[in-house]
Amino acid sequence: MNMHWKKYCCFVTLLLGMLVAFGCSSHEEAPTMDQKTLESELVNKVWNLKNLFARDVDTDEPLTLKFNADGTVEGFGGCNLFNGKYTLTGDSLSFGPMATTRKACGAALGEQEYTYLTFLATISKVKVEDDELKLFSADQSEPMVFTTGTGGLFW
C-alpha cells in the first residue's frame, strides 16, 4: 500500500509539472479580436504598405489598401488604382479578384504592382495590433505590414 501511494504521488507530481510547463509557454499568441472589433479597426482607413513579407517597401507614392464597410476593398498598387471584394470571417481574410485601371508605368512599377496584387491574393489571416495591419499568407513566414501613419505634421 505504501509503495502504491508513492507511485501515485510521483505520477501526480509529474502530471502537474507537465501541465505547468506546457501551460505557461511564453509563445502564446495574443487573443484574437472579435469580428466586430476587427472590422472597426480595418474599415474606412487607408493602410500604407510598409513591409512586404520581411522586405521593406520604399516607394515615392505609398502602396495602399482601404477596406470599405460594404465588403469592397480599394487601393493604389504603385501604378494603377485597384478595387475588388474581401471576405472577413473571424480573423480569416481573403480577397476576390482585383480590377485595375490600365495606366502604363514602365517595367519596374508594373512588376511592383503585379507582385503586390499577387501577394494580396494569397492572404488568409489578418491581425491589427499597435496601429499596424498584418496580413498573413500560408506561403510566407512573415506578414505584409501596413500602417495608417503619415510622416508628420508638415510632410
From TrEMBL:
Pfam family membership, one: META
Domain DUF306, residue spans: 40-146
Signal peptide (UniProt feature, chain positions): 1-23
Keywords of this entry: Signal
Record carries keyword Signal: yes
UniProt xrefs under PANTHER family: DUF306 DOMAIN-CONTAINING PROTEIN (PTHR35535:SF2), HEAT SHOCK PROTEIN HSLJ (PTHR35535)
Protein name per Swiss-Prot or TrEMBL: DUF306 domain-containing protein
Organism per entry: Pseudodesulfovibrio nedwellii
Lineage of source species: Bacteria, Pseudomonadati, Thermodesulfobacteriota, Desulfovibrionia, Desulfovibrionales
